[in-house]
Amino acid sequence: MGAPDPLIALPLTGAAPQERGDAARNRALLLDAARRLIAERGADGMSMDDVAAAAGVGKGTLFRRFGSRAGLMIVLLDEDEKAEQQAFMFGPPPLGPGAPPLTRLLAYGRERLRFVRTHHALLSDANRDPQMRFNSPATLHHTHVRMLLESAGTTGDLDAQADALLALLDADYVEHQIHDRGHDLDRLGEAWECVARKLCGT
Amino acid sequence: MGAPDPLIALPLTGAAPQERGDAARNRALLLDAARRLIAERGADGMSMDDVAAAAGVGKGTLFRRFGSRAGLMIVLLDEDEKAEQQAFMFGPPPLGPGAPPLTRLLAYGRERLRFVRTHHALLSDANRDPQMRFNSPATLHHTHVRMLLESAGTTGDLDAQADALLALLDADYVEHQIHDRGHDLDRLGEAWECVARKLCGT
């Protein structure tokens, strides 16, 4: 067992239980190894054995840390989701604040299409679970799109309109459009723009 | 073995291999039994043992006929889909031809919401398979909604608009709205109407 990480040694009221230093290090090693393997061979080609070996960590530790392969995949996706959310909530325009709402909405659609394309395998895994499809982080995307629609002066049922729009960014939908319909991300970005503009009444 | 059904005794060029009479009867018995059991106790409460027993048919015949529980569920859904399709393609207005396209589109949304609610378990099973989500019968619904949008004078990317609208009728989405958000079918029908009217520019 390593010494506690000094950065997280002070108890914080209401904070999650502190990770021991070696647990935190193992977590980072395992996530880095998984990312590297997915980049090299795709998510389907990554086994839990490979991840443990590439991280130089025991397989028991890997399973204790993430529960299952699905658990590991969800943590990976979650970390990248957080970085993307930072960008559209606090980053520079046109994605972040400072640009007009419709401009931000169009930028969000194109950015999210790229993200969904890159992370297709992870998002598709999450889609298999109906609870995952409609819970966090899906809720955050819904809230963001709803807020932009409202700021753009959109009338009517904002929740339904946000849901209809977001369906065009669903991982399996995007993959279907690209693989089976022969569309590319530009074409899908234009489709998003068409529907977004109609809902905003422009 | 029973005598061949006289209605299907003549060979048809390009037709599927003819079913023997007893095979066709067993199929009908098994499907009826499955429908009855689902109506009584829900799809989750229906086992393949129950279906075979209720139909008075051997379990081996059941599995030979439908391959698996999933196969049986898909056949059931398929038959009800066909009846619904007849109604919106050839039935009386406002669902069928004769009513203005926007009226038909609004009627379609409300009818489909009821269908999806009734068949949630079967449709949700199909949703777990990304191929099923975007193939027949999904294609037929897309074609129908696209045709109505076009007839109503909708401009822009009709495919994307049809897809965005149809997302509001997705089985898991509808279930989520009802169970987790506390909405009812009327409220979901109004949401469909709101988005449909915006896309049609009314």
UniProtKB/TrEMBL annotation, chains A, B:
Protein name, as recorded: AcrR family transcriptional regulator
InterPro entries with a match to the protein in the record: Homeodomain-like_sf (IPR009057), HTH-type_TetR-like_transc_reg (IPR050109), HTH_TetR (IPR001647)
Molecular function GO labels: DNA-binding transcription factor activity; transcription cis-regulatory region binding
SUPFAM superfamilies recorded: Homeodomain-like (SSF46689)
Keywords recorded for this protein, A-Z: DNA-binding
Gene3D superfamilies hit by this protein: Tetracycline Repressor, domain 2 (1.10.357.10)
DNA-binding residues: 47-66
Lineage: Bacteria, Bacillati, Actinomycetota, Actinomycetes, Mycobacteriales
PROSITE patterns: HTH_TETR_2 (PS50977)
Domain HTH tetR-type span(s) in chain numbering: 24-84
Keyword DNA-binding in annotation: yes
Domain of life: Bacteria
